[in-house]
Description:
single chain, mainly alpha, 18 helices, globular
Amino acid sequence: MNQQVIDVTPAQSVVGRYRWTICALLFFATTINYLDRQVLSLLAPVLTEEFKWSNTDYANITATFQFVYAISMLFAGRVIDRMGTKRAYVLAIVVWSLGAIGHAYAISIGEAVNTVFTSIGLAVVPVSVAGFMIGRAVLAIGEAGNFPAAIKATAEYFPKRERSFATGIFNSGANVGAILAPLTVPLIAKHWGWQSAFIVIGGIGFLWMGLWIWLYDAPERQPRLKAAELAYINSDAGVVAAPTGTPVKGSWFKLLGYRQTWAFAFGKFMTDGVWWFFLFWLPKYMSAQYGMSATDMIIPLAVLYSMTMVGSIGGGWLPTWFLNRGADIYHGRMKAMLIIALCPLVVLLAQPLGYLGFWVPVILIGIGASAHQAWSANLFTTVSDMFPKHSVGSVVGIGGMAGGLGGVLLTKLGGALFDHYGALGQLQTGYMIMFSICAVAYLVAWTVMKMLVPQHREIKGL
């Protein structure tokens, strides 16, 4: 039996369950993260009418978030490894909550920015566009800290065999946020104005911050953690718990010298854009293909995102099934990821069978999106499987930047294809090409990752 397979027969009541309280905190943080991220898109029709935005204006605002988020992911991981999980998470949520609330004051911010730019002779953009671009940039900087910090906290509080399941649980917060946003934001805006939507949703982060400060501390300093549970957390063979805030010894260039870093980064580059494509383009697809209004899409989108929540948790559990049958950590994880990578192939049928009605592509794309969340839960966990805990944030940041850039490229490709084939009256062909890319991306990613890291090789020299 491989020595990485851990005996988990002691009853949970004996071991303790406090680590799941930490998992719950990470779940709610991720939910808030996606709530804050979606307010703008849900209010876009109202804001476009009020400020007379063109499609280019709106594209510039949204592109600001994507680009700044991708770059910030690289530095966020490094900052988290240096500051420690507790303080870094507080900093991240303060920044992104202030960024979210700042959208409500976009006009004042835009006027100030344009005044400065005009005084030094630089060209300016419309006041509202400038203000919202600043708000999106600040939001992106803060939100870039969520996933590196959450993955690091999971590495600190869970043994390897439980990490993908815990990651699947907190990662499902993204899906819950995607469901809650359309149910809350329009109502707040309708009764109290669009500014109130940004302020109310943005302020939720500060409530979470209070709970985080109260309930979280490094495991070795956590008074609520039983000795038995701490021993269980550190029960992986060869694990030596590093104190929170341990200085990062390896530079980015040193981390890039490991195949494991490139395997994770390539997996993110190939697949993150698929999630963003589904998130941003599915409403446009349903409108173009089936003539559906925003109101018509509420139930189909709620069903789709509910499916992804199941995929996130179920995919996080899947490696445990293999571990309980004797597989080691690496092979159990890779077997699970191969099965998950096969599931998005059903998206190839979304366009050919779309004539049967909109529920067919909704369900098929829902399966693909669910597989993405399952894949993501396991992909994130490969970092903590192979790297020391004090380097996890930095590696996740490198991969996060790769994923963000991959998302920008896929979004640009989709826009170019839809413009080209739309002008030819063959928009369906554009969607068929994009669905095909989304369907096979995971198998390509898995194959390259397996080639780069054919066997488990834990990094110990950092």
